[in-house]
Structure formats: structure tokens, C-alpha cells
Design a protein that fits this description.
Blueprint lengths: L3 E2 L2 H23 L4 E7 L3 H17 L2 E7 L5 H12 L6 E4 L11 H7 L11 H8 L8 H12 L8 E5 L6 H10 L3 E5 L6 H5 L4 E4 L17 E4 L3 E3 L8 E3 L4 H4 L5 E2 L7 H19 L3
Helix pairs in contact: 1-6, 1-10, 2-10, 6-7, 6-10
The structure holds guanine (GUN).
The site of guanine (GUN) has 8 residues, from strand 4.
Length: 292
């Protein structure tokens, strides 16, 4: 039987709708609308599109938003000074520094992310928030994996006691995904480039989350019939000079959908959840900062 396709659009709409209601309630109680600042350094084309979409989502929900554009030549000190300014700006409850930073600032990435006030860290990347997540006491958790959990919940896919296999161990997706699944009482296995007999492990999974960054890495023979397959991969495949790159996930969608019970497409799957969760995190951060 072909898998149920989990389209991100429906879930993102639901998450944004809830965040909007909560934002309006905050406004009514405190007179303040939740606000998000997005900082972009340089002009990476993919980052420019992401930042534009984040602004659009803020507008859609009526949230206050600020876009801070800094030139590719910005220094670490200038960027840190900007973060300090946003940390003390009462209208801003969430701060996101778009990654990747330009090459010259690559080594400063940790210092930059650590400078954000943890209460405004809507990415959930600050070590304080990473630590809170690992002890099960987090307010702000990374948007993409949190969106995946929401989608599984809204789809009535059981996590309690399920074997969840996360492929990839990045700080942005793999590790927080594993921790969040653990909190939902899943039995979690984290696999990565040094894992032996990967397919033997994935074939025992009730839920697979693929976040490896390799196109069509998860093939049908790696999936147990009826399993849920969540594809977090976004691989840009060049279609030649002047043509728009094609987006391909980490899962061989066409073949895996014949085996899986549920599956997310790329594009149109998990990607849309990230921005929706960013809106929710901004609202949550505002609530916390306003003492509501
Ligand atoms: N670049 C790609 N994904 C992300 C994300 O989730 N947060 C930030 N800050 N930058 C990104």
C-alpha cells in the first residue's frame, strides 16, 4: 500500500494559526505584539530567500519584525554589537542570526550564537537552551526538529515506545531531534557516517528521520513496511547553466513511498514547518519575557 503523504503546508498552517491566536492574546493582555529580529550578513542567495520568507510569515501573523542587513565585510565586533543592541531592545523578543555566516566570520559562529540572550534565542542554538533540552526542561527548542514532533503529533503517529532512527548528528537537526524524540518516550538510535550496518538498523525503525545531506540516501530496502519516514534533507541539484536548481531530499521518495506508512515530500514537507515553528518560538519567547 502506498504511504500517506504528509504535506508540510497543512501542518504549518495549523502551527501558525495557533501562534497567531497566542500572539493576539499576548497583545491584548500586555499591549505588546511579539517581535522577531532576523540578522543576515552578506548576500548568500538561499539565505536571502529564507530571510524574506521569515519576514513574510511575521507579516502574515501580524508580528513585529526587524530585518538587520549587514555587509559581507562586517566584522565580528560589529555583529556582536548589533546582537547586544537587539538583546536590550524591548520590542524584540526573538533574535535569529541567519546561517551560514560569510567565510570570514565562520570561526566566530559559536561566539556570535552564544552572544544572543538565551531567552531571545528562537533558534534554540544557545548552549543554555541546548543544555535545557537535554535535561528535558527547554522553552525554546530548534525549529525544524520541533516542527517534526508537532507534525507527528498532529498526524497521530505514535512515538511512545516506538523505535526512532535519526540519521545525522548535526547540532541543528540530528541531536535536538534525538532529544525531542526521547522526551516523547521513543527508543532512539542516532546513526551517522561511522555507523556500521546502517540498513540493518533502519529496517528496525518505526520512525526514520533523515538529516544527512545526501540526495536519495534512504532507499526502499532500508525501510520497514509501514514505517514513518521524515525527510529533512534539502539538496540543491544543479540543472545546468541558467536553470533553477532542483531540490531533492535525503530519501528516495518515489520508491520509499511504496513501502512506508507515511512519508514527507521534498519540497513541500518539513521545510515549511521550520518557519511556522519560528513564529511559535517568537510568541513563546515573548510570553516568557513579558511574564505571561
Ligand atoms: N540556516 C539554515 N537553517 C537555519 C536555521 O534553522 N536557523 C538559522 N539561524 N540559520 C539557518
Amino acid at each position: 500500500m502506498a504511504a500517506k503523504i504528509l504535506y508540510g503546508k497543512e501542518f504549518a498552517a495549523r502551527i501558525k494559526e495557533d501562534a497567531k491566536k497566542e500572539a493576539l492574546a499576548i497583545k491584548e493582555k500586555s499591549g505588546v505584539m511579539p517581535g522577531l529580529a532576523v540578522v543576515i550578513v552578506g548576500n548568500d542567495p538561499a539565505s536571502t530567500v529564507y530571510v524574506r520568507n521569515k519576514q513574510k510569515a511575521c507579516d502574515e501573523l501580524g508580528l513585529y519584525s526587524v530585518k538587520v542587513e549587514m555587509p559581507e565585510t562586517a566584522t565580528k565586533e560589529e555583529l556582536l554589537a548589533k546582537i547586544d543592541e537587539l538583546n536590550s531592545d524591548k520590542k524584540v523578543h526573538g533574535i535569529l542570526v541567519q546561517l551560514p555566516l560569510p567565510k570570514a566570520l565562520k570561526d566566530a559562529e559559536d561566539e556570535v550564537l552564544n552572544r544572543i540572550d538565551p531567552r531571545k534565542d528562537v533558534d534554540g542554538f544557545h548552549p543554555v537552551n541546548v543544555g535545557k533540552l537535554s535535561v528535558g526542561d527547554a522553552t525554546l527548542t530548534p525549529c525544524t526538529p520541533t516542527g517534526v514532533i508537532r507534525m507527528l503529533e498532529l498526524s497521530d503517529i505514535n512515538m511512545d515506545g516506538a523505535h526512532a532512527v535519526v540519521i545525522g548528528r548535526s547540532n541543528i537537526v540530528g541531536k535536538p531531534m534525538a532529544n525531542l524524540l526521547l522526551q516523547k518516550n521513543a527508543t532512539v538510535t542516532v546513526c551517522h557516517s561511522h555507523t556500521k550496518n546502517l540498513a540493518d538498523i533502519t529496517r528496525t525503525a518505526d520512525i526514520i528521520v533523515a538529516a544527512v545531506g545526501r540526495p536519495r540516501f534512504v532507499t526502499a530496502d532500508m525501510v520497514k513496511p509501514g514505517a514513518t519516514v521524515i525527510d529533512v534533507g534539502i539538496n540543491r541539484i544543479s540543472q545546468g547553466e541558467g536553470k533553477k536548481a532542483k531540490l531533492i531530499g535525503d530519501v528516495d521518495f518515489d520508491n520509499v513511498k511504496e513501502v512506508a506508512g507515511a512519508i514527507t515530500p521534498v519540497p513541500g514537507g518539513v521545510g515549511l514547518l521550520t518557519i511556522a515553528m519560528l513564529m511559535q518560538n517568537t510568541v513563546t519567547a515573548a510570553k516568557d519575557q513579558l511574564g505571561l
